[in-house]
Amino acid sequence: MVREEIDRRYGNVRAAMARDGLDAVIVSGNEYTGFEGAVTYMSGFVIVHRYAYVLLPLEGDPSIVFPTEARYVGEHGTTWIDDQVFVDRPGEWLADRVKGKRVGVYGLDYVMTVRDYQTLAGAAEIVAWDEQFDHARAVKSELELESVRDSVRINTKGFWIFLEHFAPGKAEREILAPCERYFVDEGCGRQTMDMVLTGPHGGALPEFKIAGEYRIQETDMVLPSLEIAGSGGHWVEVSRAICPGEPNDETKQMLEAYEEYYEAARGALKAGATAHDVHRAVAKGFHDRGFRLGHVTGHSIGMTMIEWPKIGEGDETELQSGMVFSMHPHAIAEDGQSCLYMQDTWLVTEQGGEPLAGLEMRIYKGDERQ
Predict the structure, then answer these.
(1) 179-196: average pLDDT
(2) CA angle 279, 280, 283 (to 5 degrees)
(3) E runs forming strands in 35-192
(4) Is the pLDDT of residue 326 over 90?
(5) Predicted confidence (pLDDT) per residue in 214-241, tens digit
(6) What Cα–Cα distance (Å) separates residue 45 from each residue in 48, 65, 109, 270?
(7) Fold observed for domain 142-355
């Protein structure tokens, strides 16, 4: 990692710390898929097992802290942080360093271990800082955007591989397996979270599931949810629906709304717009047709799979050029028996949203080839 990029990241985070009156920030990460990336973003270290923390003071050098049992798990030489600490109870070490201070913690919602939180909470003033940290890293540098585009390349190819192996009569996991092999070959490692939604009679059911033994039928609707991070560590989401037969009438209406969303996003995802305004613009076609949205319309995405800001009702965050969003309206019929869920990764520019994958917005039959 070049020093300029490290300084940019720390500078942005420290500016947010100073604004919020913090003396330090603790960034948490663990091996839960999609939630290890904040530590990588702040240190260059990739968590292989267990968990880790980065302590960044407002002034002074950072530290990276590991539990003792993880001493030989992961390549510790990959971090650019010189102060590498291995202790039985990281929370106790951190508590000693931040005692009496006002400390922002990224990871209170999902990541930080309970035992470490309990120790810290008794030693310092703890401030939940997930959203603020994400906002500080939301605008991607050119170096980061190179990683994003490479992840999009891999993910898009993965969809075409899914389509190549798709055929009625095959099991879900039989179709997905070649994608996973390709993702590993391209350097994703275990940074993949791939699921499917399937359903009969031209309409997919709205529940996400792990690809299993179910064999696809001629009339099924299949929605592969493909989410990966390439070797640079930036997560992306790119996918389309597949139906070898005829989509049902509700699904056809959902596709019309998706076509409207896709065009609306081009204009709405621009610098100066608010996340709320974007949500209203892209959700309109679905609401006008009476569909509900069962999953977040979109969200910032980076080295953590789901970051703030969210594209949703009431979020007045002003978008800036260089932000990257995963967009995937989860349209669900009133009776809950049909849904449509297609994913794209978008770049915010001064002129509007740029879809990075370039996949045509439509429902595929399953016999198309790249």
Answers:
(1) 96
(2) 75
(3) 51-57, 63-67, 83-87, 102-106, 125-128
(4) yes
(5) 999 999 999 999 999 999 999 999 999 9
(6) 9, 11, 22, 33
(7) Creatine Amidinohydrolase (3.90.230)
Tens digit of each residue's pLDDT (9 = 90 or more) over 44-101 = 999 999 999 999 999 999 999 999 999 999 999 999 999 999 999 999 999 999 999 9
Chain position carrying tokens 């291995």: 86
Could you tell me the end-to-end alpha-carbon distance of the chain, in angstroms, rounded to an integer?
A: 34
3-state SS record for 251-296: HHHHHHHHHHHHHHHHHHCECCCEHHHHHHHHHHHHHHCCCEECCC
Instruction: Name residue, tokens 């091996």.
Output: 31
Architecture of domain 3-136: 3-Layer(aba) Sandwich (3.40)
* Length, in residues, of the chain: 370
Given a contact cutoff of 8 angstroms between Cβ atoms, the answer to whether 221 and 199 are in contact is: yes
Instruction: Output the six-digit token pair for 112.
Output: 């930080």
What are the extents of the domains in the chain?
A: 3-136, 142-355
Query: Angle 15-16-17 (CA atoms, 0-180°, nearest 5)?
Result: 90
Give the Å distances, CA to CA, from 184 to 53, 242, 295.
Answer: 26, 24, 28
Reduce the DSSP state of residue 134 to 3 states and report it. helix
The pair of three-digit structure tokens given for residue 264, joined into one six-digit string? 């609306």
Spatial strand order of the sheet with 63-67 comes to: 83-87, 63-67, 51-57, 24-30, 102-106, 125-128
